């Protein structure tokens, strides 16, 4: 059976959930071979094997941290040459897309980004995408070279499928040309203790109606009662009420959780582009005419400062 | 020596319009008005600020690949203050995908001459966000991408990249490809004077022959990817909407419990 390279997204060996989803999708088109770059491969290998990786190719070098993106492309290319895979899958993170793009140029292949589903086809893997602010669903495939596909988080439920997960060292030579962009400093983001926005099963977002940074704790309290991530609309971010890293929308993060709760968000096209594929959508807004209500499964026309705290109390009471 | 800046811009269908696919599954451009991709306005703005920081000792060329109408995107950038335009236009370009576009841009950038290429973080239509990385790979120069702050001094470009898990400060020697986010700074509005001046600024027109690109390397036939199906997403069925009369929070909790979220 053909092998499929899966690029592993991890923090020091702690594998992030989108990679487990990739392994699940990879098994539909072949045998997953994971590529783990940086420290922690031994820790990661067990998790990767549990989710179907027959092999874990690993390499660690200071260049992966000292320079932006390109050294990792060298490593993934080495893995590609070692394996001759049927496809290369990466997470649709900023870095995943950039690594995939550069690899595609090098190996003369096409690239598809932001797939939300993947299946085997007669002429290679077929990727489903959600385009034009999720108003269209397309199916595409790659016609030249080895398909390079990046997949959005929450595109598949990770399934356990124990496999060998044999760890093999990959020999990587980082080219001088790949040392062009120095990472002068790196400041890790302070953890809020909340789930990652793009991976969360539930997202609670606040918008213009939150009316000030000092009111965002109302949104955070609801999120915490549900174990959810916190998002914000562009209006709230542009006003400086919440960090840009939490922005949901076309120029922020695109999310696709099981449940999306929009509080005080009118639902401009820009925002809809980032959340329209959520499974269940709930909105709370004073304005009964807000376009967000066209999308909802359940909407409450009312003051978020009344409704959200009441909901939070109710959630806490029900959870005991 | 004057700094040569090339800003890559895209002419896109207006996202607030009703966007559709044409019969050949490319974007239907007749159906909806086009404009300069909003995210590219930030790229033009940063190029202008870099030029200002260099006391004007820089030349900004704005480059686009697209049909005749794409000239509108160039004019907008020129009215903001860019110095000249390059428009790559060729019937054989219809249906070109991201890899093909990066090939055309790379050739056009090389032909124009550059020290710094500035791009937006993504287009507002395809939203892939890979073009700057593709271009850097093709040009064989550093990529300094997804920047919320950017500056150029002494042949070195510096920037700040706010990633998912960390904020990084980056540095590369020119020539380089940069992309900027919508956090890099509000784009300026063209002044009346700027709009009038833009009409007189030169726009060079190039076709595939000028760039030594064969027709079969680009376009729908030459694309590395193929859209096989495009279906309009069914409209969501109308949900339940209640008016809060004191019980809104409770009713919502009831709904969420029914859906097993609580």
From TrEMBL, chain A:
Binds 1 FAD per dimer. The keyword ATP-binding does not apply. Residues 4-187 form the Electron transfer flavoprotein alpha/beta-subunit N-terminal domain. Its cofactor is FAD. CDD domains: ETF_alpha. Transmembrane segments: none annotated. PROSITE patterns: ETF_ALPHA. GO terms for biological process: fatty acid beta-oxidation using acyl-CoA dehydrogenase. InterPro entries: DHS-like_NAD/FAD-binding_dom, ETF_a/b_N, ETF_a/FixB, ETF_alpha_N, ETF_asu_C, ETF_asu_C_CS, Rossmann-like_a/b/a_fold. FAD binds at residues 208, 233-234, 247-251, 264-271, 285. Keywords: Electron transport, FAD, Flavoprotein, Transport. GO terms for molecular function: electron transfer activity; flavin adenine dinucleotide binding. The keyword Glycoprotein does not apply. Pfam families: ETF, ETF_alpha. The electron transfer flavoprotein serves as a specific electron acceptor for other dehydrogenases. It transfers the electrons to the main respiratory chain via ETF-ubiquinone oxidoreductase (ETF dehydrogenase). Heterodimer of an alpha and a beta subunit. Belongs to the ETF alpha-subunit/FixB family. PANTHER family: ELECTRON TRANSFER FLAVOPROTEIN ALPHA (PTHR43153), ELECTRON TRANSFER FLAVOPROTEIN SUBUNIT ALPHA, MITOCHONDRIAL (PTHR43153:SF1). This is Electron transfer flavoprotein subunit alpha. It comes from Streptomyces chrestomyceticus JCM 4735. The lineage of its organism: Bacteria, Bacillati, Actinomycetota, Actinomycetes, Kitasatosporales.
From TrEMBL, chain B:
One of its GO terms (molecular function) is electron transfer activity. GO terms for cellular component: cytosol. Pfam families: ETF (PF01012). Keywords: Electron transport, Transport. The keyword rRNA-binding does not apply. It comes from the Bacteria. Residues 24-215 form the Electron transfer flavoprotein alpha/beta-subunit N-terminal domain. Its cofactor is FAD; AMP. Heterodimer of an alpha and a beta subunit. The electron transfer flavoprotein serves as a specific electron acceptor for other dehydrogenases. It transfers the electrons to the main respiratory chain via ETF-ubiquinone oxidoreductase (ETF dehydrogenase). Belongs to the ETF beta-subunit/FixA family. PANTHER family: ELECTRON TRANSFER FLAVOPROTEIN BETA-SUBUNIT, ELECTRON TRANSFER FLAVOPROTEIN SUBUNIT BETA. This is Electron transfer flavoprotein subunit beta.
């Amino acid at each position: 059976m053909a092998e499929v390279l899966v690029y592993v997204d991890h923090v020091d060996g702690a594998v992030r959930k989108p990679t487990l989803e990739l392994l699940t999708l990879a098994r539909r088109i072949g045998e997953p071979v994971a590529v783990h770059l940086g420290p922690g491969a031994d820790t990661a290998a067990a998790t990767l094997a549990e989710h179907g990786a027959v092999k874990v190719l690993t390499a660690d070098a200071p260049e992966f941290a000292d320079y932006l993106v390109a050294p990792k492309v060298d490593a993934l290319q080495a893995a590609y040459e070692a394996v001759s895979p049927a496809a290369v899958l990466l997470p649709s993170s900023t870095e995943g897309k950039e690594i995939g793009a550069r690899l595609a140029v090098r190996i003369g292949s096409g690239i598809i980004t932001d797939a939300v589903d993947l299946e085997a086809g007669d002429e290679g893997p077929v990727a489903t995408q959600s385009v034009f602010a999720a108003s269209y669903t397309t199916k595409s495939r790659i016609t030249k070279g080895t398909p390079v596909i990046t997949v959005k988080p929450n595109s598949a439920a990770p399934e356990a499928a124990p496999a060998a997960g044999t760890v093999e060292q990959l020999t990587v030579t980082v080219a001088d040309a790949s040392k062009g962009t120095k990472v002068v400093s790196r400041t890790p983001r302070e953890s809020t203790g909340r789930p990652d926005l793009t991976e969360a099963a539930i997202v609670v977002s606040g918008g213009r109606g939150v009316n000030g940074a000092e009111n965002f704790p109302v949104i955070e309290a609801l999120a915490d009662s549900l174990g959810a991530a916190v998002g914000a609309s562009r209006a709230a971010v542009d006003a400086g009420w919440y960090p840009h890293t939490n922005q949901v929308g076309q120029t922020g993060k695109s999310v696709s959780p099981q449940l999306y709760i929009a509080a005080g968000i009118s639902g401009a096209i820009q925002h809809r582009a980032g959340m329209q594929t959520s499974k269940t959508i709930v909105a709370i807004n004073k304005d009964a005419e807000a376009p967000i209500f066209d999308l909802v499964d359940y909407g409450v026309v009312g003051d978020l400062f009344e409704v959200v705290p009441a909901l939070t109390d109710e959630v806490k009471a029900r959870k005991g | 020596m004057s700094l040569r800046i090339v800003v890559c811009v895209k002419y896109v269908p207006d996202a607030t319009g009703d966007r559709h696919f044409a019969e050949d599954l490319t974007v239907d451009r007749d159906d909806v008005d086009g404009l300069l991709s909003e995210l590219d306005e930030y790229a033009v703005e940063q190029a202008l600020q870099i030029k200002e920081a260099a006391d004007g000792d820089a030349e900004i060329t704005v480059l686009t690949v697209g049909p005749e109408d794409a000239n509108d995107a160039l004019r907008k950038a020129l009215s903001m203050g860019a110095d000249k335009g390059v428009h790559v236009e060729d019937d054989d370009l219809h249906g070109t995908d991201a890899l093909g576009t990066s090939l055309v841009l790379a050739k056009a950038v090389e032909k124009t001459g550059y020290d710094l290429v500035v791009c937006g973080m993504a287009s507002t239509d395809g939203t892939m966000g890979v073009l700057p990385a593709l271009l850097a790979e093709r040009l064989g120069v550093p990529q300094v991408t997804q920047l919320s702050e950017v500056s150029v001094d002494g042949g070195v470009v510096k920037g700040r990249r706010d990633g998912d898990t960390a904020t990084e400060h980056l540095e590369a020697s020119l020539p380089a490809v940069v992309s900027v986010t919508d956090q890099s700074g509000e784009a300026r509005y063209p002044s009346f004077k700027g709009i009038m001046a833009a009409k007189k600024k030169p726009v060079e027109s190039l076709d595939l022959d000028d760039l030594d690109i064969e027709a079969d390397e680009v376009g729908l036939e030459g694309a590395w990817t193929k859209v096989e199906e495009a279906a309009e997403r069914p409209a969501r069925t109308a949900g339940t909407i209640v008016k809060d009369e004191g019980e809104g929070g409770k009713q919502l909790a009831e709904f969420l419990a029914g859906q097993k979220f609580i």
